[in-house]
Amino acid sequence: MASPRVAVLMGSDSDLPVMKDCAKVLEEYGLEYDLRVLCAHSSPEDAARFSREARERGIQVIICAAGGAAHLAGAVAAQTTLPVIGVPLASSPLQGFDALLSTVQMPPGVPVATVGVGTMGAANAAHLATAIMALSDPALRAKLDARRAKMRDDVLAKAADVPRKLRELIDGK
After folding, report:
1. Residue 1 domain flag
2. I want to staple 89 with a disulfide (CB 3.0 to 4.6 A). Which of 67, 110, 142, 143 is the partner?
3. pTM, whole model, 2 decimals?
4. pLDDT by 10s per residue, the chain, length 173
5. Same structural domain for residues 144 and 116?
6. How many domains in the chain?
7. 35 DSSP β-pair partners
8. Is residue 12 in a domain?
């Protein structure tokens, strides 16, 4: 088994139903990942230690998911120069808007790439991590290119079927 190249950190185990979409995409690309629950507030020393030591363990990208104040991605980015991708989660009455703003508004010099809120963001975090690593990994780049080509082919096939579907809708079928 290969060493994990991606770390997926969650502020709570309650984030797992959303972050499974991240794990699924990473697995589709054949990427090993290290999935952990680390909290910027409840286990700050552990999160900091993990972040500082990640590069030595072969981690190339860190994905952090958190809701509410969503400090995890920023706390991790403050401890490493590895790319950090934040996934804001809708775990508060503000439905993720607070987490989105907390994740995207990082100070200059400590960036966090931020994807959309929730499951779509979780999947896109995995795609972005893959794209970052594909810059120096031709085999991974080929997988990414193949996936994009399949997406294009699927869209064009659906587009070709639109006139027939429209006719069925008009005719009430």
Report:
1. no
2. 67
3. 0.92
4. 679 999 999 999 999 999 999 999 999 999 999 999 999 999 999 999 999 999 999 999 999 999 888 899 999 999 999 999 999 999 888 888 999 999 999 999 999 999 999 999 999 999 999 999 999 999 999 999 999 999 999 999 999 999 999 999 999 97
5. no
6. 2
7. 8
8. yes
Calpha distance 15→150 (Å, rounded): 30
Pick the closest to residue 121 from 66, 74, 82 (CA basis): 66
Closest CA to 12 of 98, 71, 94: 71
Q: How far apart are CA 151 and CA 170, in angstroms?
A: 28
Using an 8 Å Cβ cutoff, are 93 and 72 in contact? no
Q: What is the rounded CA–CA span in Å between residue 114 and residue 125?
A: 8
| Pairwise CA distance, residues 89 & 122, whole Å | 9
Query: How many residues does this entry show for the chain?
Result: 173
Retrieve residue 128's tokens. Answer: 């972005």
